[in-house]
Amino acid sequence: MSASGSGVANLEGHTEFDITWPWTRPGGLRPGATAVLRVKDEARSLPWVLPPLLRATDHVLVVDNGSTDGSPEVTRETAEKAGLADRLTQATYPFQVARAGAEHLAQPERSVHSLAYFYNWCFAQVQTRYSWKWDGDMVLTTEGEVSIADLGWQVGDVQSIIRVPRHGLYLESDAKGYLDLGLRNAEEWGFPIGPDFVFTKAYEWEIRTTPEPVRSIGLPHGMCVELKYLDGDEFAHWTDPASFATSYRNKRKRREWTVYNALLEGTVLPGVHEITAPEGVHIVDFVTHEWLPRAPRPLEVGLPELAPVSPAQQALARREAQP
Amino acid sequence: MTELSLTDPTTYPRKVLFVAGAGRSGTSTMAGLMRIMGLHVPQPEVAADETNPKGFGEPRWVVDHHDRLLKEALVQVSDSRPEAWFETGRVSTREPERIATAQWLESHFQVSPELVVKDPRLGWFIGLWRVAAVRTGATPVFATMLRPPSEVVGSKQTYYANRLGSAHLAASWLNMMLHTERGTRVGAGEGALAGGRVFVRYADLLDDWVKTSMHVAETLQLQHVLHADSEQIRDGHRFVDPGLRRMSQTLEDLNLPPRLHELTGATWEELNKLADPGGDTPAVHEALDQLREAYVDLYEESAAISRSSVVAAEQRLKRQRPPAPPARGVADRIPHGVRAAIPPSVRKGLRKVAGRERPDAG
Lengths: 323, 362
What we know:
By secondary structure, chain A is of the alpha/beta class. Chain A has helices at about 45-55, 70-80, 100-105, 115-125, 140-155, 250-265, 285-295, 310-320, and strands spanning about 5-10, 20, 30-40, 60-65, 90, 130-135, 140, 160-165, 165-170, 175-180, 185-190, 200, 205-210, 215-220, 225-230, 270-275. In chain B, helix 1 packs antiparallel against helix 11 and helix 6 crosses helix 7.
């Protein structure tokens, strides 16, 4: 999708959901960083996700997309309870968005049902110069919180992407979970807001455009966990989990699928840590405030059999290995 | 967890006080007082000299660590570029630096649970130190010293014979103070950013260090200071010399360009509010946010206007470099090991293509 002009009209003619690029608005963008969450049925996770994110950023935008579990109400209550409701904006995107995989591939980029259009619409609501793409199940650790908080203002007007590693945390109960450190996985989550950084279509999902050359920095491991519930349907937003097998782009999903199904069968795979919280402490608090921040460094992450295979990932791994 | 005992410092929770602020703002006096009250200054430290006869209170390792990181980031101690914060922030994300910083901190927590770390370069690495505190299970707290910019600039010129103009010194003071304020700003609630901070006017510390240091201790919950004994207080009186404040310049004396003058004056006014009891408020943060933005704008405009100076400096550097060695043939640029791996027949063919056939041996 091109970022020329003042915005993009959608194919369906829903003019109230046309995209107006925020840098073309009167007054332009202000300094600071906004986290953008696109949420569908994340009421269980949001009370863990939002407080550290609200503390670490200047603003949090939560866009609800068809939740039926009360996510918008939980969002508001969580921000109020944290005393940070002034940093929260809520919005609703009413259209059904294509699930990752084949359904996404079939959608034209300018359709309101396209993931790329949905993301562009969400990020067009941002009023700050920097943004964090965030998920409704991603919880910052203490170290992640302070790192994101610093980079959010340090980045200033520098056109830089920031990669944030995350680790799957599979929850069995309030006291017990399984942390997957088997896969090295750092995705690009921090982006400037501007015409060089908009969303366009990729094979399974959306991708953000970048200028060339662009600066890029990566945070160390242990910054963030992604909550998964062993009693939930973790793969509902995929058209067909069988399509995970198609390419190395889906490696993370394949690993999640393997770990999740092994845990359901009672097997803890290599690279997965079984963690029990002390009495009276919730497992998510324990892992994000104690276990991960205090784990010996460098954190042992990544099984050899899950090493990067794509040329781009290998190049990234080489860059990260440099002092 | 062990219960806190007022008389047993080994039960105090781990805490590290970082003393920040521009150089020559009373950071040594603050760190020295904290040491007298019982906080531990990690050893060895930088020796006293004529610029600071009572000692700096600066751990040697910290100074060397910061110096090396600043060099890697290509940032100067008094750097007026707003983007310098991204460069030092980027270096601070590196895992080996986080590990080294946390290990150093951990080794000194073995000596005492309450540490004081001070270095004028510290402002550049607040995030790195906060991470190190998190990794060692400690609460990081920050005391930022405030001294009128006219006096800081005057003091620097006197003591360090700094040849840089006062405009550059004032700009780097603005850059340091506006961003140190942002970097130490705490989040609401129970989060990792809620360790605490306090702003202290150097003048207040010299006028009544007893009252001022108790305010610091109460705000940051420094157990050693809260429970200091009478001999330590006597030592404090012996240490603080009200005559230290030798400068009495005004901002007008610096003859700054009008917009810089205005920004410097307004920033000092807002920072001062932070030092008042209950003065660390969202309204002041907002005003400082606007001043920071105005400074960034002013810097970017000035950099655009003076771009020719940068180009000329680059050209001068290029001319000073030794001339490049004469160009060699393609084959000479291929490492010997690689050349040797090419079969002789292929090498001969390549030489022929390049028109560099060797005369047949014979």
